[in-house]
Amino acid sequence: MKPLMKKKIFIAILFAPALALVPARILYAQSIRVVATWPALADITKQIGKEQVSVESLATGVEDPHGVPVKPSFVPKLNRANVLILTGLDDEHSWLPALLEVASNPKLMPGQPGYIDCSVGIPVVDAPARLDRAEGDLHPKGNPHYLLDPVRAKTVAQNIAAGLSRNFPQHQALFERNLKAYLAELDDWIGRWQKIAAPLKGVKFVEYHPEWAYFANRFGMKRVGSVEIKPGIEPTPNYLVSLVQEIKEQKAQVLLYGAQNPRLPQQIAGETGIKVLRLYSSGGGRPETDTYIKWIDYTVRTLVGAVGNG
Ligand SMILES: [Zn+2]
């Protein structure tokens, strides 16, 4: 039996009873029930849908970006949702497809109107010539961590507004009005961040998992390397030796990691003196990053503070 099939059956057996446990008054309280995979997407959806939507995020924002642990509560949420908002580009590949099959909600399946993929129209960094997961690469369609670029968040907001309007055309005028206001707010912040982030220009960094390409491109940071050999592939001792050498030669200033174990970043810091900083590639999970704008603001300011003091 294929591993994915086994996983689906396992999830089905484990979570099927959860469908029966959700009180009806919770299910029917709001007109449009939205499930987002990540908190940043949930927040942007709230900005567009306002009082018309009830939004929940499956991930809290501090999980491994490609390995969100599935909980029994995810199944009834997906089963009862009107629409699903996701990052796409296979970001959620390791946990969402199997969960969707168990949730048995035809509206949310890929290609259906309720499946709102926010990556539509995003210029993808590191897009491969052909789709290939043969070596366990977690970015088979290119880098999916585009939410770290606030300019790309404008495309995300547009995709969400279009997706909500497609499913609920009676509220289209409201969604479009809210979208316009949110895009203007984002533009204000982007202008501010460009100024605040000026010290980041040319800063050489190392990342644990390749998550920072879009942010780095936006604010002019230079990538020296990653702790993982490829997305999702942990380093060998020989690889770490060459990474340490590269950090020393290039005088990389900061090593960024998020949900990963801090052991290797600290070891590398011990050998090179590089500054280590924990910054997550998704908002949420912490009060200082519980909206998209607060998350990017926190990220920019924390990085500027770290580099400025270094
Ligand atoms: Zn990734």
Would you kindly provide a written description of the structure presented here, covering whatever features stand out?
The chain is of the alpha/beta class and 310 residues long. Helix 3 (39-49) links the parallel strand 1 and strand 2. The strands form 2 sheets. The chain has a 4-stranded parallel sheet with strand order 2-1-3-4, with helices on both faces. Helices cover 43% and strands 11% of the residues. Zinc ion binds next to loops.
Report on the biggest sheet: 4 strands, parallel
Question: Which band does the percent of strand residues land in?
Answer: 5-15%
Average pLDDT score: 91
Main CATH class of the largest domain: Alpha Beta
Q: List the helices and strands in order.
A: HHEHEHEHEHHEHEHEHEH
Strands of the biggest beta sheet: in what spatial order?
2-1-3-4
CATH topology descriptor of the largest domain: Rossmann fold
Helix content: 40-55%
Count of beta strands: 8
The span between the termini is 53 Å
* Distinct compounds present: zinc ion
| Separate helix tally | 11
Q: CATH superfamily membership of the largest domain, which one? A: Nitrogenase molybdenum iron protein domain
The radius of gyration is 20 Å
Named at the architecture level, the CATH assignment of the largest domain is 3-Layer(aba) Sandwich
Query: How many domain regions?
Result: 2
Q: Quick one: overall form?
A: globular
